Amino acid sequence: MAQNIIIDTDPGQDDAVAILLALASPEIEVLGITAVAGNVPLALTELNARKILELAGRADIPVFAGCNAPLTRKLITAEHVHGKTGLDGVDLPAPAMPLQAQHAVDFIIDTLRTEPEGSVTLVPIGPLTNIASAFQRAPDIISRIKQIVLMGGAYFEVGNVTPAAEFNIHVDPEAARIVFGADVDLVVMPLDATHEALTSRDWVETLRALPNRSGPAVASWTDFFERFDKEKYGSQGAPLHDPCTIAWLINPGLFTGRRINVEIETKGEFTAGMTVADWWGVSDRPANALFLRHTDRDALFALLAERIARLP
Ligand code: RIB
Ligand code: CA
User: Ligand 1: residues whose CB is within 6 Å?
Assistant: First the structure.
């Protein structure tokens, strides 16, 4: 039976690949896409979500706009990585499908209250503002969530937006603290795992050669956003962060990690947004997350190519 999920996202080229992977996979049923401000402002993340769905021929999936700023802090965006549109690399047409009138946070609350208890998985792949807002407004939904599988955080890999913090957590540490502090089955896909999910030229060219529109789009998005990581890390490819969450849902065996305690730093002058992962169990703080550490890179990219090939 397919897993019912809500993808909470800030597209972002890697978000786009995650959404395409979900749409191409029979193991997954996407109930809706909720947009949040992150890589680019909300007006662009919700627009990009609709463009991605139309690229995949799935204008039937509803898109909701959520929070346009973190709970308390000023929004930090990442146009230097993702371009001014957030989806630079491919010029997609303006979407014909409408944005839903309902606020994303209300959609999350209503869906969790109406779907059977324990049947909906939340997949946040941007800042956690929408999720935390839903928990604050309707704490009753927390016990109804099947699982949260989020892209965010870092420990051994350290930060990518500050020396201590990964972008999604750093944008809204207060929201992350609420989510990591909730009594919920939490799976964390940090940079430690996603930095092993590096693209390769061969893989990108395989996608570019696919006889559909999705493959070449993924290749062009990768061409654009990998330039930043290759220059920064001197790597041959770029990490495809967000699709790792969907890949985990499809095949958890692609990743290894540990159930540990993970706390969110919100007060540090230099460490705000750091995921303080007790990997060696030196504290007596309870384990609250499965923290993934390693990725079977070749199997992951074989899955990605095989699934993207199924799309229009
Ligand atoms: O740090 C990587 C994360 O930040 C990814 O989700 C990427 O899309 C950006 O949102
Ligand atoms: Ca993202």
Answer: 10, 12, 14-15, 38-39, 125-126, 151, 160, 166-168, 241-242
